[in-house]
Amino acid sequence: MSVEFDQNQAFTNYAHPGALVSAEWLQNNLDTAGLVILESNEDILLYEVEHIPGAIKIDWHTELNDQVVRDYLSPKDFAALMSAKGIERTDTVVIYGDKSNWWATYAFWVFKLYGHPDVRILNGGRDLWLAEHRPTTTSKPAINASEYPVINRDDSSIRAFREDVVAHFGKPIIDVRSPEEYTGERTHMPNYPDEGALRGGHIPSAASVPWSKAANADGTFRTRAELDQLYRVEANIEDASEVIAYCRIGERSSHTWFVLKYLIGIPNVRNYDGSWTEWGSLVRAPIARGSDPGLVPNAN
Amino acid sequence: MNSEDAANKIIEEFSETADPFKLELLLEYANSLPELPERFAGHEEELEQVTECQSPVFLTTEIDSEGRARIFITAPREAPTTRGFASLLHGALDGQPIAYVLQFSDKFIDALGLTKLVSALRIRGMAGMLARIKRQLKELQ
Description:
The complex is a heterodimer of chains A (300) and B (141).
Chain A lengths: L19 E2 L1 H6 L6 E5 L6 H4 L6 E2 L2 H5 L10 H10 L7 E5 L5 H12 L5 E4 L2 H7 L30 H7 L4 E3 L3 H5 L23 E2 L15 H10 L8 E5 L5 H12 L4 E5 L2 H5 L21
Parallel strand pairs in A: 1-5, 2-3, 2-4, 4-5, 6-7, 6-8, 8-9
Chain B lengths: L2 H13 L3 H13 L16 E2 L8 E6 L5 E6 L5 H14 L4 H5 L4 H5 L3 H4 L1 H21 L1
């Protein structure tokens, strides 16, 4: 049973306001039956430091990714993970995290690969919750294992592979990394580990729209009008556009994917999770350097 | 106390702790990372940045009058994992003879049994710190 939506006025202009909840709403619903709160962070210890009462930790790296093949969990493993966390297929899942919700939107995206019906993001994430001095705890909730069905993962509608990117040439591609990564000056984020792309630059024809332009300083999403200006006016994205977003390993582009699909309502947006760590190491993959997007490559 | 004792004590502590509680132990280390001495205040950016880490981590080393390694590391509170890694290395190496630190093996990191729990990618930050500590001390000799 779906939990009632947050009727917050600030969300009504978004295309799918039901995909967001405010901190105030969540605080009022901490004990609501059928609601599961998940914390998804870059730093694996933050949950242990403190978390929202009742929240369960989910880790993108050790839990959502397959530990051998570079891929997400298999249908069976996803069902087992959901079951271990006590999540029912009918539950409303609210996800929040650090870093302006990068890893929360990443987890959201994985939940949508498995078609979990009701998933929402806490606007402002972990940082805003703490900044507003809302309640936190270090105690972990008791979990009763659930029965979660084994669902086939749908990689076709919201996920792009490298072959899909090649077939997509000529349609909008958005590079959401920092300007230094886009131009090829560096292959990873400032202050971040180098995860091994052998070449710097961007996929030719990709527009540079850093993910951070969609977020306010407090981690909340920008208004609908600001997002429309950013993507529809400046990046020429329309309702009919088919869009692929990418970053370094697919986490920052999950943020942009969420914004495009749920906040400004572009139906056909895919996240290329191979992203630059794959493309920047692929033999003979076309690359453009500098601030110019470059020409659309010949798709063979 | 032998030089190995500090590192061995840490390894023992982790091996005696069941997996689900290892992260909490790491958090205790994160919370006990010593503050930088006063004389570095306001000059953190002049220390060497550990670019292998996911957060802004800076470290520097000194050799004291008795020829022992002094290690200074700072990492933000919002990055407890990185602070924990820094604190473990500090605990194992601070105040030890230079020769001991220079030959200190990466196996220490594996022996903690954290790699599977925090992921190989994240633990790489600790190896980055250790490599920089060794390089700096070598340059100071």
